[in-house]
Amino acid sequence: MSGAPPENSPRVVILGAGFGGIAAARALASVPVHTTIVDRNYYNTFQPLLYQVATGGLNAGDVAYPVRNLLRRRHALDFRWGTVERVDADKRAVFLGDGTELRYDFLIIATGATINYFGVPGAAEHAQAIYTLDDALAVRRRMFEQFEHAVSAGGEGGVLNVVIVGGGPTGVEMAGALAELRTLILDSSYPSLDPQMGSVLLVEQKEALLGGFEGPLAAYAQRELTRRGVEVRLSTAVREVSAGGLTINSGEEASTFLPAGLVVWAAGVAASSVAASSELALTAHGRIEVGPNLAIPGRPEVFAIGDVAATPAPGGGHPLAQLAQPAIQGGHHAAREISAALSGAQPTPFSYKDKGIMATIGRRSAVAEIALPATRRLLPLRGTPAWFAWLGLHIYFLLGGRNRAAVLLNWAWRYVSWRRGPRVIVGG
Amino acid sequence: MSGAPPENSPRVVILGAGFGGIAAARALASVPVHTTIVDRNYYNTFQPLLYQVATGGLNAGDVAYPVRNLLRRRHALDFRWGTVERVDADKRAVFLGDGTELRYDFLIIATGATINYFGVPGAAEHAQAIYTLDDALAVRRRMFEQFEHAVSAGGEGGVLNVVIVGGGPTGVEMAGALAELRTLILDSSYPSLDPQMGSVLLVEQKEALLGGFEGPLAAYAQRELTRRGVEVRLSTAVREVSAGGLTINSGEEASTFLPAGLVVWAAGVAASSVAASSELALTAHGRIEVGPNLAIPGRPEVFAIGDVAATPAPGGGHPLAQLAQPAIQGGHHAAREISAALSGAQPTPFSYKDKGIMATIGRRSAVAEIALPATRRLLPLRGTPAWFAWLGLHIYFLLGGRNRAAVLLNWAWRYVSWRRGPRVIVGG
Description:
Two copies of one chain form a homodimer. Chain A is of the alpha/beta class.
């Protein structure tokens, strides 16, 4: 909402229009700089609801927001559609895929992550990731194609089985939504198929689901999933994924082949390739190392935030999880640091405020740990209260009034009619 | 809503889940037959609103309705996802792309149309049709890519020009929506681009727009388009389409090259390929010849309806236009004829009831000729009354309550906020 700053104002380039990049751009609106956001898509994706696009509950457009809509009445904010080839930190320049060179005084790297297949053979080829909007649409298309193939071919060979790899929030939400969807759809739209024919299996390498949550909530989530027909296998590693299913370990040496028509990969993310191509120091997990104020060591004008950065956690130890909140707070902090640097102030360490975590399992069932404002202690919630908290917060954080209204409409419709809204496969 | 008819009931196969096929399937619900609908998509597309998907006003899912949703509680209705290879009328069988053979007692061919490029060189390769949902999404993607390319490359060489070929309802609606969209978007999201840089050109071979409408309405539509910045060129034939634009005739022998970043082909449709591959008698325009009751001559058990059929017009002359109403009424008639044949009644000729035609040009501007119930005379409407009539009828004819609500929401949002709703490019 600011007026245009002077022509010779410092130039900030933000790589990536995800949670972190958008938060930084918004916070920079009150700083006298020219800001350019670069992204390979024209839109910001609300990733926490991708699983609902994948399971037909929402339209793709409901969770996507055009980056240029943020530009209205902000004269000091530009958008450039393009891929980032590399960062030349010595030259203070970003090179885009089309050869464009963008010079900067400050740089915020917020390019997010790519899928981490952990070297499992066949996973990249045959498992379906769920990190982008295209991924979500691909999951949806493949799932409905499964049903249609089962109608014409009969459901032999486990063609109707779905396996979800990874028991974190994404995997749990996918498994719950898929199980509910399949029950509903098999009943209403595929009366000729045997409802017992397919299965939904959730595979997790650790001993419990939802690593970051406290034990009772994780146990509740597992019970709720089981009640919805999801088979949960813990302490189970995936050895290989193939066209017809996947191989898991079953005991010390033994392995079992599970036939499946669809394998969804929700096991983890790695930093995006921009990190690797830019000669920046990376952690063992491929994330960019950052100092206490989120600037890169030795480069006080370059910040890395969100999934791509190894953001230090308050107590030390593992870096912060690759979730929306660390990215948003990191974006705000980077913008504050740029403002401080312009006025000659000293760097301030980033201090993460844990607002809690949540995951939904299905209709009126979710788990949440919500930070209480006064004490910052985490309040555990489950069942209907957690589900309504989840609904409210997701609506609140969506970008754009139209998207909020459309998501509310789709959810209300589904809640009342107890059917799915749009479940159409488009493209491909 | 019928119970299941006896196992040995006659089998009806409907090819195509468009307006005609769906209308026939619904009408057959009260006839004691088993019905199978075949379509290459799992969804019915509401084609009259495709241009709004193309111009970012609606989500793809808003104008698509899963065919299987029609199957709920209809035990005698099946859906088969697949392509039709050919019809063997002697054997009374349809062969699908996957080798499946569907036997029928009655067949309704409602496979619609494909784009007719009228042999114009380069048109099939370089012009973008707008007949399917994928087409509409491709137009949208290419249009926004135009804008982004103009930002990075600077709009030279007419990269921002759009040419729409064909001045029928589809071309007029596309041109009006594109012109409004460009004004809005250039202003709000591309402040760095010169609003004068691109142009929207509508090319029509005949001497007037909107062939089927009365003269004053067509002239009104042309004025309204011009007022919105659309350049209209009548009596202009397209000679060639290339990657960078198109060549039109300009006078007897001369031709002119017009640079354009996007050429939208709205010039006409031909019958689908199923007609050609099935040894049925076709008209010069490739449509299936049908008798007075819409059955194929010599094949009283095979009907052809909608865009694929040369449905006789009430007064003779040209067959009915390839629009929704002839398809819907044809579907109802074919179902009645099947019911009559089962009870040994004589064939009844199809009698088309003209309910009128309409086309929208932009915000509060449309033209319509609406048949008055009593006299069947056509009432000409234009401006705001025609626009509201257009809105109401399109909502009414949409399939599915959720889609109706979503389209209403998007339209209301846009009307109030005077912005576009979803304008996101997904896929590709």
